[in-house]
Structure prediction request, 420 residues.
Amino acid sequence: MYERMLKCLHCGAQYPLERMFEGCPRCKTDRFQSNVVVDYDYEKIKETVSRKVLKKRCVQGVWKWQEFLPVDPESSLTLGEGGTPLLPCRKLGPALGLHHLCAKDESRNPTHTFKDRSAAVGATVARKFGSRHLIAGGGNTAAAAAAYGAVSGLQVISFENQDESMQAILQTLSYGGKVVYLKKYEDRYVLMKTCVDTLHAHPVSSYTRSPTGDPYSEEGRKTVAFEICEQLSWNVPDYVIVPTGMGFGLFAVWRGFQDLYTTGFIDALPQMVAVESSAGGSLTKTLTSGAECIQRVETAPTIAKHILVPQVGYQAYRAVKDSGGVALTVEDGDILEAVFSLATHEGIYASTTSAAAIAAAKTLHDSGHIDAQDTVVSVITGGGLKDPDVIETHFSLPDPVGGEWDKFVELMKTHYNMAW
Prediction:
């Protein structure tokens, strides 16, 4: 289609469109690794596609944006990913002091996270390169990879941390994925690299100490930005908040806005907000300290385990710096409050990880960073059914009752403080 080359995000070195998962070798040092990204012929894209063309397309979701993706649409794999709603938070927004807060609800994807967007592209590219295996670093990435492995005939191997959500693991196994538990997080590095080198496996997760990852599959997640702009009638939000672990999702969404800006679909760019768990905070600490290299941190337990990593990738740093945005950390208590506030006010049941985007919106407004009239989009990266072990500890169910009305009334009064 319109992809031309791989290009280093840091030094600009150019490479062929081949398997390249360990970042740019030209500017790599002992302390630094840069990501490479897919570069397109944007002038040809401008000549081919327009808002009018997009409006007439029958295909929806990720593959609606085929000119901006590094695969032939004729070979694309789909389970109906993308096309998720952008929902105005009409009750929660004003309660937080934000009159134009929206939630991009990615829990509506096939495996209930925005990882499906990257898995769809990753599986398609893997077949293009002749791979027979997809490998993933566990969690929601593995569940998404396993789903697309099932429809593409690719074997999926997932390297899981021992504290990973059982729901994500059961999803992976149900789709036919093979789960391998790791003794420690860093054990993935050598095992995944060996799979890439010896099995010709295609990784949809990063396996380098400083996250570099697969430049192709992450192009799928930039379609989040395309949809946000289209759903806002081609207006651009002031802030886009993305829960951030290694930073691939954050950067992919930023890339989407850049693509639209470069091709003239939009005339402004948002500020990107990276929200991390206070149990880690690699990007936040890097930016606040002014360090020259990405800071590696010690991590602690958190309910938002999918945004907890020892080190964020360079691409996340660039997304925040280039957009004039900000990175911040949020506490578990604020995340849990956001889960229940979003559910009770707006009917959106978010995972703890993705509810961090709502907690961040509140924090930024309370600190004066975001104005009440700013348009703010919080990306809800996944659904709350991913975290049953966290949520169930905060509720107790009442004892059973029979058919007696008075017993029912008493239960509603004592257990729920509800009376008629």
